[in-house]
Automatic annotation (TrEMBL), chains A, B, C:
Belongs to the UPF0126 family. This is Trimeric intracellular cation channel family protein. It is a multi-pass membrane protein. It is found in: Cell membrane. Its main location: membrane. It comes from Agrobacterium cucumeris. It comes from the Bacteria.
Length: 212, 212, 212
């Protein structure tokens, strides 16, 4: 198991999430005119990279894809499968924004669960969630030679932090961790969807003096 | 030893490979007008980065350059030695393409051997080979602020995957792992050279709709 | 403790250093018009990234910020605190160059101390110091989509190498490691300040033939 088996729901959502992340990564690869191997690899890295770095930082071995190598095939093949259907995906972009939002909150909660299971401090639990939720996209953007969207987009990392905090706070009122995971995902998803709908943004810091 | 001692041939080829990778990294550094320290560091990172990340992912410690720190000097100094001879290297570019191809298949087989020695699943054995063979060049390209060539060039990662698969398949007919390593390197090298000679490419995925 | 307690001075300087690194990272974030979350994260990554990668490479767990998660808050909040005062920082830029130079030598010595405490070879001790001192800035530049300054700027990595070598050499004359740490920091700081003052540079390697 790559995460404590609190719920089959999370396991199913995890599969949906890595497939969705791999497919959006494939589109990013297509914008950079990568070849099919590049599409495959970028799909794997985007979908599994956040969890990989989290596990390396927390010394939590074996990595998920070392224990379950089928994840490599699932994500890589999902990315490849995107190539023939990309022309239709524009019409499905709202669905993909929704799946991407699910991925964000599911990855975050899984990261929090793993750090919790290792009895790490609360701040580290949130940090592990944010790493898991956000780092895949950062790696994708670095490999596509772009400034990571994460650092500039609407509430993406914010939703991850928020989801992690909810995950920590809800058990304080006597609710089980399984329930708090679901509540955190639901509220995080809601915040993300509202942010997309109303175009909410975190304020930007613009500094122009003293260019290097 | 950084890899199971199946063969002194592989050990010698490994040295040839890290020197060749460091020297081509030096040329990339020169295109970006890096200083000598940058040349030294980029040589080390390109030649040793793939194996380092593989070992971190597989929890295989100590890292090769921590156990054999002379590798840092060999690769860094090879990169520096490239500076005075760079003007002649253009005439030797075919030799360097050849050495780079040797590096690719040697690194791949070493990665496969290490994952095999840890009794990891077959897909992970191939993945470890590809990581070892290809990641150094990806790190070089990221540090030079380019979209990694790997994701766009002729059969580079493909050759690595192919070499890893041969490494797995050959023992099935009753051949020792030492022999299968040599066979995998020979066939992988042949594929790479043919790809260079005939300009074989993996098809490209071009996606222009829905720019972010 | 993230480092062997040779000296409270180093501990205090470490705090000064991570705050200074986080604040300069915030300015880099502002030049890329990142949002506040991006500023927070870039502050953490720049200030703590070098030590994190060093610890991963040396298998030295738990990571400093996992054991002392307050570091995440200190660095992230320092970066955020930079936003309202950025307009005045231009006038303080000499002070920040000085604080950044302190960070460089303090990080380097801490990295050397940790590798020494693990009884690693001398070359690895220096390499661990350079990783700790320089990698945070490299990660910052990658995330801002720039060719890392390290590879092109005046004596930055050189100062780190120099500091590490002094750290190794001084004990040979019978001085304690605590004293050698202070000597290494003082001489490294002096070299850095002289390099800034007199614009000393490492020679550059410029290679224009054979563009890819």
């Amino acid at each position: 198991m790559i995460f404590p088996p609190t719920s089959d729901i999370i396991h199913i959502l995890y599969f949906v999430a890595i497939v969705a992340e791999a497919m959006t990564a494939a589109l990013a690869a297509g914008r950079r005119e990568m070849d099919w191997i590049g599409v495959f690899l970028l799909g794997c890295i985007t979908a599994l990279g956040g969890g990989t770095v989290r596990d390396v930082f927390l010394n939590h071995y074996p990595l998920s894809w070392v224990e379950n190598p089928s994840y490599l095939l699932v994500t890589g093949l999902s990315a490849l499968a995107t190539i023939p259907i990309a022309r239709y995906m524009y019409h499905l972009r709202k669905m993909f924004l929704f799946l991407d939002a699910i991925g964000l909150v599911v990855f975050t909660v899984i990261g929090c669960q793993i750090a919790s299971s290792l009895n790490l401090p609360l701040i580290v639990v949130v940090a592990a969630g944010v790493l898991t939720g956000c780092l895949g996209g950062v790696l994708r953007d670095i490999l596509c030679n772009e400034v990571p969207l994460l650092f500039r987009s609407e509430l993406y990392a914010t939703v991850s932090v928020f989801t992690g905090l909810i995950y920590l706070i809800v058990p304080l009122v006597g609710v089980s961790h399984a329930i708090s995971s679901l509540v955190a995902m639901a509220l995080g998803l809601m915040l993300r969807l509202l942010a997309i709908r109303f175009n909410w943004c975190v304020p930007t810091f613009v500094y122009t003096k003293d260019p290097r």
